[in-house]
Structure formats: C-alpha cells, structure tokens
C-alpha cells in the first residue's frame, strides 16, 4: 500500500488478524451449551458435562435398564414354590410361612435397602411367630457373584449353630445343588410359567455345615435346593407412552435386563417395546463382534445380561456408528454409563457411583423428560448450525473489506481499524448466541436425529450457500463504496457508507438465517423476544457512532443524511434478500414431496 508508516502497517495488520479470527464461534458454542444445560435443569435434568448437551440431538438408540427404569422397582413377593411339597403359595391371595421364604430372608442383608429384600423381611416379620433374627448374627458373607450370580449368607448363634441361606439366579443356585434331572425339569417348567407372567424368579437353597468353624469358600458348603421365590415389579405409570415417544422421535429402543428371557418378553409386550428379536447373554457370548454388529440392529430385548456383557453391547453399538444413550442406576451399570455417549442415571434411585459415571441425572426419575431433552438437543444442534452459518457469512465481508483496499485504490487505504472490528464482533456475538439460541423450532421439524456428532457441522451445500451469502454482502459493500468514490465523497464518508451497509446487512442476515426452509415473511411472524431488542440496539449504536461527534471521530467516520442511510439499507436488502426465492422454491418442493407421501 506504500503508506510509509510503520504504525499504519501495524494497525492494518492487527485489524486483518482480528477480522480473520472468528472469535464468536467459541462464544456461541459456550453460550449454547450453557443455555442448554439451564433449559435441561428446568425439565428436571442435571447435566454433568457440556459435551452431553451437544450430543443429545444426535442420539439414535436408547438402551433401557428394566428394573427401576421401565418398572417401579417395588419387587413385592408374589409366590413361593417348594420342591419338597410341590406346592405353591400365592402371597396376593393367602400368604403363609414357608421354608423357601425363611431361607430367602437369611440370604438377604440384615438391614436391607433393596426393595426385593425389604419385601422378604416384611413378610417374614408378618408370618413367622418366632423371629430368629435377634438370636443370630452374620459371620460370613459370600456376596453376589458368578454367572449367573448368587449370594450366600452364613449366620451363627451363641450355641455355634449355623443357618446358611442362598438365593440368586435360578441357574446359578441349581449349579450349587445336587438334583435329579426330573427335579430340575420340574423347577425349570415352574420357573418358566412364572417368567412368562412377567415375574422375577429366584432360586433359594439351604446350606448344611457340620464344622464348628464357618466355611471359607462357598463351594465347600453342601446346598439343598428348597424352591422358587418370585417378585412382581409393575411397569412405571405411563411408560408405554414414553416408549412410544422414543419411537416417534426416531430412536431405536433396546431393553437390557438380567431377568429371564420370558420375563423380559412379557414386560416388553406390556410397555410396547418392539419384539423383532430377543438375545440372551449365553447366545450373545457365542457371537464375535463382527457377528454381533450384524445382529444388533434387529435385537430389541436383551435378557440374562451381566454388567460386562452390557458394556460390550454399548461398545459394539458405538462401533456400528450409533450414538448411544443408556439408563442405569446400579453400581454395576457404571462402566456402561461411562462408555455410552449419553449416560443417564436416576436421581433418587440411582447410586452415587452411577451418578458419577453418567452425563445426565434425572432428578425426579421421570424418563419421559428424556424425550424433551432429546428434542432440546436437536433444537440446539439446528440453531447452532444457523449461528455458525451466520458467523461465517458475516465474517467473509469483514475479512475481504480489510484486505481489498490493497487491490482497489478507490477504497480508503485503511477501510476498517481494530475499533470497527471490535464493534462488529460485539454485535455479532449477542446476535448468534442469544437470538439463534432462543429460536423455537416445532417438534415436527425435529423428528429425526442429526446425522452424527462425528460429521461436519455443515454439509457442503450449506457451506457453499453460506459463503455465497458472505460474498454477496461484500459485493454490496463494494458497490456503495464505489458509489461514494465516484461522487468523491471522501474517505470518512465512504467508510461510514460501507460501515452502515454492513450493519444493515448484519441485521437482515440475522432475520433471513432464522430459517433456511421458510421465507422471511413466515419467520417474522414467529416470536423471538431477543430479535427486536438486538435490532433496536444495533440501529441505536449505528446512529450514535455516525451522529455523535466525539464517537464519530473515534470511528473515523462522517455523519450520513437520511437518503444515504436509506441507500445503504436498500443495497443491504438487495444483497441479502436474494436467497428468499430459493427458500420459497425449496419449501414448495418439500410440500409437494409430503403431499405425494400422504396420497401415495
């Protein structure tokens, strides 16, 4: 440019550097995530990570733990079945004491917190005239372990007499006992009947130990199989509507449970989960990851699944390109919750370990809030895309107008200074962060998940239109600059004309980019509290800059006449409104496609 001034060159270089860096993008990202977390909190959802808010809109599959999520986690005792007598006791009709109930109690915690064990203790207290609990203390515990898992408790009184109770998954308890094939067949058939009615089925055994010292290993104990105890955990009210809501939101729903296959199927039918295919833990163990990838898409119910297998399911789903959300409330759920893209823990029912591993916490345990959260996530993604497109579009003319005076001698040698760039970014920051974040989008337009969090935020077609928008605004600013130069208006006046045109373009771009499928005439009717506020502030600031002498001098500008403001506005309108016919045409094509689908 040959100004010969080092200060001039330094300021011009600084202006160019400031114009090139789109500082509004990290501001927009932070603002959108913060507002998103706040909106989720209003729905009773606590967000532990901004990343989760960003990912919500991309979720394609939700894996649901049965107990405590799909069901109420009440676990009331419903039946006991004795192998010795081949008789059943129905607790909803006439509860009676039995050896099965007694030893199920001894196999439970002394001070239970689990609803299932609380129910066992309550019935023991109600039905047994002599309460032996005060005479015995636990001397050895074999915690829940094995595949399938079982637990054993060893109690002893002052006379060194032992009581040993064992309960757990039926197959696991049967492994510890010696039964004839006929007896096993009776037990399996009875367990199957209960499971088909949606009941949780546990085996109960009694341990025999003759030594005065308690056993060190569970396998050293001689176990006698007593029978079955069953529990009813009713589905959560309105859970059927929630499941339907997930399907309507375009999510694939998968239930993962440790219960019997028949129990899982019965519950799935009650709450409306699709039953394309059911896979058990043992069947899943026989599949390698490649075979599992091919199978997972058609499986909606997983039964007899342990924590390690649950983690494997989550990881393989991720490998297939799914964005996975998962619910859980137990300690064993923590690895899978942490691995899922969106881990969801229950607020009051969930353990601290589960909450620590999850990205979202449902404070009131209401799973239906997740539907709102997913739509909110999609809205955030949609509006964030608008904000990014706006930032790119408006930055292009700023960058070019700083650089082009090198090539066009009729432009002022230094069109913009750092103060102009700072002012423009002060307007653009609130515009993209507040206005677009507050844009409301109807749910019917957010029916499907966004492509994926791993893909580019903008498609190539979107990026090209965005660039063209920026270039058109640049052309408009150059035309009005040439107009000022042609009529020899002077450097300050030309700068003011271009600056006002850029401000008007910024305002119009804000309105136009509120939707890329609806014309500005429709979007103007949609309420957004911040739009008139931002427009009003922008215009007032422009008038102050170009009409208050001290501020005008600071910006190296010149006052404009009303007709000059009008001319700037008209130029800005022409070079921003051009996209509206394209939007109208695209809207027409979408309407025709929708009509064809309905009539077809």
How would you describe this protein?
The chain is an alpha/beta fold and 600 residues long. The protein folds into 3 domains: 8-44 and 372-599, Up-down Bundle (Calcium-transporting ATPase, transmembrane domain), CATH 1.20.1110.10; 61-72 and 236-365, 3-Layer(aba) Sandwich (Rossmann fold), CATH 3.40.50; 76-232, Calcium-transporting ATPase, cytoplasmic domain N (3-Layer(aba) Sandwich). 53% of the residues lie in helices and 14% in strands. It contains 24 helices and 15 strands. It has helices spanning 6-20, 24-42, 50-56, 66-70, 99-106, 115-127, 170-176, 181-196, 239-248, 261-271, 281-285, 289-296, 307-319, 334-339, 352-357, 369-403, 418-435, 460-486, 491-512, 520-523, 530-547, 549-554, 562-577, 579-599, and strands at 45-47, 61-65, 76-82, 87-90, 137-145, 150-156, 162-168, 200-208, 222-232, 252-256, 278-280, 301-303, 324-328, 342-346, 360-362. Strands 1-15-14-13-2-10-12-11 form an 8-stranded mixed sheet, with helices on both faces. Helix 14 (334-339) links the parallel strand 13 (324-328) and strand 14 (342-346). Helix 17 packs antiparallel against helix 21. 44% of the residues are buried.
